[in-house]
Structures are given as C-alpha cells and as structure tokens.
Amino acid sequence: xxxxxxxxxxxxxxxxxxxxxxxxxxxxxxxxxxxxxxxxxxxxxxxxxxxxxxxxxxxxxxxxxxxxxxxxxxxxxxxxxxxxxxxxxxxxxxxxxxxxxxxxxxxxxxxxxxxxxxxxxxxxxxxxxxxxxxxxxxxxxxxxxxxxxxxxxxxxxxxxxxxxxxxxxxxxxxxxxxxxxxxxxxxxxxxxxxxxxxxxxxxxxxxxxxxxxxxxxxxxxxxxxxxxxxxxxxxxxxxxxxxxxxxxxxxxxxxxxxxxxxxxxxxxxxxxxxxxxxxxxxxxxxxxxxxxxxxxxxxxxxxxxxxxxxxxxxxxxxxxxxxxxxxxxxxxxxxxxxxxxxxxxxxxxxxxxxxxxxxxxxxxxxxxx
Length: 369
Fold this sequence. Notes:
Layout: E1 2-9, E2 16-22, E3 25-29, E4 31-33, E5 35-36, H1 46-52, E6 57-59, H2 61-66, H3 70-75, H4 79-82, E7 89-91, H5 95-100, E8 105-107, E9 112-115, E10 122-125, H6 127-137, E11 141-143, H7 155-174, E12 182-187, H8 193-205, E13 210-213, H9 222-232, E14 242-244, H10 250-258, E15 263-265, H11 268-274, E16 277-280, E17 283-286, H12 306-310, H13 313-321, H14 325-352, H15 355-366
Parallel strand pairs: 4-15, 5-6, 6-7, 7-11, 11-12, 12-13, 13-14, 14-15
Antiparallel strand pairs: 1-2, 2-3, 8-9, 9-10, 16-17
Helix pairs in contact: 6-7, 7-8, 10-14, 10-15, 11-14, 13-14, 14-15
C-alpha cells in the first residue's frame, strides 16, 4: 500500500503540504527522516523516536547487507520486526555508500564491485541485487540503485554517469517482481541543468510512484545546488512525492521545501550531536566551549524537549568533555527534537502562508552553516 496526496499548496512558492500513506502508517509532509544507518538511529531508542514524533526513518541497505545480512533481517519479517519499529521505513539502495568508499570499489555497466569496509571481502552490487536486498529488508519505500556523480566533474563524465543511473533504474524496476513496496527513481546529472532535466524526464517515463533527486551535498557550492533545483521546479510531478536525498541544514530544509520537496534525510542532527554541535532557535551552540562551563541556563530557553527542560548547558558541556555516553544520548535527543519541530513549523507556515518569513528568520541564524 502506498499513496500520496497534496493537501495544500504554498501560495508564494512550489512548496506543498501532503500526506503519504503506507501499510505501516501515515507520514505528514514535508517530513524529515532520521537516519538509522544500521537499523538504529545512533544514540536514540525507538521509544524516544516515537515520543519525538518521528513518523518515518531511513535505514541503510549497504550496511545492513554486510551486517547482520538481509537474510537475518528477513527471518524477523523485515526491519519492522527486527528493530521493533512498526512505523514507515525507507531504505536507500547503497549507491551513496559505494560512492563514499570509492577507494574500495570499481563501477561498470553491470554494477559495482566493492570490498567491504568491515573485513575486506569482495561483493558485487547490481541494480537487481540492491532491489533483492531491499525487498528482504521490507522497507515501505525503497530506492533504485544509482551512480552518484562526484563533484567537480566534467559534463561528458556527468552525462555518462547519469545515463548509467537511468539504465540501472530501469533494471531496478524490472527486478521488483510482485513486491508491493514503493520504488522511487533517482534523478542525477551533477550541476548541469540540461542533464538534470533529461534525467528527470527519463525517471518520470518509468512510471514509478515517487521521484528523488540525488547527487547533491557532495561538495558543490550551495548556491549552485539551489539554482539547479529552482530550474527543476516546474518539471517535478504534481501528484508524486519529491525526495531530496542527503540535504539537511535547517536553512536548506526550508529553502528546499519552497523548491517543492516533501521528504528529506540527513545525518547532520545526529552526527553534529555526537560532535557537540547543537541546534537552537538562536543558532548553533558548540557545547564544548569554555564559556558554558558554569552556564546554568538551558540549552534553548524556548525548547520543550526533555533535555532543555531538565539539564543545564554546564552539565551538557561536562558530559561532552568527559566523553560520557549520556552526552550523545542527550545531544541527539535535542537535535532530533529541533529538526522534527522545525518540520512541524514548516507545515504550519504553509497553512498560514508564512513560509517565506520562516526562511528569513532561519537565514539570519544559519546562513553560514
């Protein structure tokens, strides 16, 4: 079961309010998906994620294939049973992880041959294999295998990579068989507008239930990303969800909702939490700074999360500089609360017609992030 409905359009942009329905629950869009790489959102329990209001999480096919193995997960009825998460799950195809381990892989027409970063063993990863593993993992939304183009790259190389992604997407679709999972296509083409438009047209011709845009946040200038996304706005399908992969500073989220995107994932809130960078309504805080050593105020006086309601900046700094595990737990809880509440603010702003005002406020606090 999978459906998407646009409930309301933003009067000042291509942003929209929507609802995705899956067999494991509904997702209000625009939505942020916490990243649960190895069937866990690092430093957060499933109970905490539910209390925070997370409606969908992302799991990583590449990592789960290597450990514990998709067959192990399948024995539990898929990821929902294995990790005790009865809500929607999106699994990526492993394309970005292959890209990020370039020294360990080689790419050809059939797919990717790579060495495990865990034990050095060799594996072949094809579009068919990526779909097979994702079907076993049982995610509600799964992704085609794509060739994630690096930056910078010349136009001939970008076009060759994009066309390979399109051929792999068709093979991914052909490998679906009788699976009822929702397979999303992925638009590639680096920063070349004509290649992005061609890729989008090819993805739409495949008739898949959702469209994702990948290949950003790989080193390109932020302004260039927004220019390309602006050029794609009018060509994106009105009746399908739009997923922007791996992009997610607070300001990016608002700006890309205005570009018409409905779904986002990013490791920023959790990774930054573990590194001591925390998001507040007045901007970022690097909790290790000595200025917080005796600061008895909450992290964010306006925040209603349990961390800000109970703990001081001084205590959070002490935990971080002491290397305490609780530091990651509390910091992660706060950052995820910030992101999930930001998406709630975005949805309310669409209803009120004040999305542009929200962008302006965030721009003053997070422009340099």
